[in-house]
Amino acid sequence: MAAGNGFLTESPDTRYGDANGSFIATEMWAHKFVAPSSGTLEISEIGLYTVQYTSGVYLHLAIFEHDAANNCPDTIVENSDSGAILMPQDTFQKCYAVYGTKPTITGGNTYWIGCCQNSANYYSRFQTGTGPLYVSGATYPTWPTPTAWETHGDLTRDPSLYAVYSEVGGATNVSYMIFES
């Protein structure tokens, strides 16, 4: 399977992107995606390809509702915060969490996958293009409020964030899909 980002039916086996992008500890960022299919979708895994050059660095990933009026994240989707994930050191690897209690979203709706970290200058894989937004002055691991997301800045990176989904009450999709904003 090829590398990917967005909402996917299988966990990606290779990294997405061909360049490095660094992020700082006081920035929390999120990337917009449209959930595929229709009906209720259950999320089983969330992750990204990343590296940190020092040990003991953690991040949280989560899915947020879409604030259409301000084109930014709104409230966090229930049960979607990954909890603390230890970042790999010295080499790009898939950094992910598998949900015990699986969050659900609605196919066809817009969502944001967010990231926050406890250290400066970690690196994510990305491609240039339409990128995520970020909020400065954040404190790990507290997510910004919906009002704080409204004060966002924009980046020109398309990071390797992803979430793995399956349809609730139906057959699991077997096709590989990439959804970008």
List the helices and strands and how they pair.
Blueprint lengths: L5 E3 L10 E5 L4 E7 L5 E12 L6 E10 L4 E5 L8 E2 L6 E6 L5 E3 L3 E8 L4 E7 L4 E3 L10 H4 L3 E2 L2 E3 L2 E6 L14
Parallel strand pairs: 1-15
Antiparallel strand pairs: 2-11, 3-10, 3-12, 4-8, 4-9, 4-11, 4-15, 5-6, 5-7, 5-10, 11-14, 12-13
In short:
By secondary structure, the protein is mainly β. It contains one helix and 15 strands.
Structure, described:
This protein is mainly β and 181 residues long. The protein has one domain (6-167): Jelly Rolls, CATH 2.60.120. The protein has one helix and 15 strands, in the order E-E-E-E-E-E-E-E-E-E-E-E-H-E-E-E. It has one helix spanning 146-149; strands at residues 6-8, 19-23, 28-34, 40-51, 58-67, 72-76, 85-86, 93-98, 104-106, 110-117, 122-128, 133-135, 153-154, 157-159, 162-167. The strands form two sheets. Strands 1, 2, 4, 8, 9, 11, 14 and 15 form an eight-stranded mixed sheet that branches. A hairpin with a 4-residue loop joins strand 5 (58-67) and strand 6 (72-76). The protein starts with 5 loop residues before the first strand and ends in a 14-residue tail after the last strand.
Considering DSSP H and I runs of 4 or more, what fraction of the residues is helical? under 10%
Q: Mind telling me the C-alpha Rg?
A: 15 Å
The CATH topology is Jelly Rolls
If classified by CATH, what would the architecture be?
Sandwich
